[in-house]
Specification:
The protein starts with 19 loop residues before the first strand and ends with a helix. The protein is built from 7 helices and 9 strands. The chain is α/β, with parallel strands linked by helices.
């Protein structure tokens, strides 16, 4: 895939870029990396807008794993690329205990070097021909866009105007996850499509993979 110019993704051993973003669950407050430094390691997931069905699934997966990570001494934070108001409306009807921050302008994605593929003819063709089944719930792998539509239909999600505007601005930004130790150093990283190309679209690390990385912090 051809990528629009950006810095390389933050890799293990590098210092995690600082950030301070609006908290979704607590209006008029912010969440920063400094909140965790010296106190707790952090599992940080950088998502795009709520228009993305794979991101909505990732939030649900993080919510299910959050308590297990906390038991291992690791806090969790998801960054959603939508306005705080749009996020609060969504989570009013789909509440979660997961800590979430809002970053509609994708500033943290750029700081952490997450790629944004160029929508070349080759890339667009790959969306039509690459078959995926990221959650194993389909009878067989299907083209990427068909899977996105199937997940959205299963979720019963109806996009609003904010979603549509953010999709036009953000697509096809990739996502990523980082495990940051209490000193602010990245110890583990996963960038969407980094190893599998388009076949990696929509995949989120398994709870076992994340917990194994968390346990490795103590060794």
């Amino acid at each position: 895939m051809t990528m629009l110019e950006t810095r390389p993704p933050v890799a293990p051993g590098e210092r995690a870029p600082d950030f301070s973003l609006p908290a979704i669950d607590r209006p008029e407050t912010t969440i920063s990396l400094a909140d965790y430094r010296g106190r707790s390691p952090l599992f940080l997931a950088l998502l795009i807008g709520l228009w993305c069905p794979f991101c909505r699934r990732a939030i649900a997966q993080m919510s299910a794993t959050e308590s297990r990570l906390k038991a291992a001494g690791v806090e969790s934070l998801g960054v959603v690329a939508t306005t705080p108001e749009n996020a609060r409306l969504y989570f009013k009807f789909r509440p979660t205990k997961l800590r979430l921050a809002a970053d509609p302008e994708l500033t943290i994605h750029r700081a952490y070097g997450l790629p944004k593929p160029a929508p070349t003819p080759e890339f667009m063709k790959s969306l039509e021909t690459t078959r995926i089944n990221p959650y194993g719930e389909l009878p067989e792998p299907r083209p990427i866009m068909e899977v996105a539509q199937a997940v959205a239909k299963a979720d019963g999600y109806v996009e609003n105007q904010t979603d549509k505007t953010e999709m036009e601005r953000q697509w096809p930004q990739l996502k990523g996850q980082f495990l940051i130790d209490r000193d602010g150093i990245v110890r583990w990283a996963n960038v969407e499509c980094a190893t599998e190309g388009p076949a990696g679209v929509g995949k989120f690390p398994s709870p076992e993979e994340i917990l194994a990385a968390a346990r490795a912090l103590k060794t």
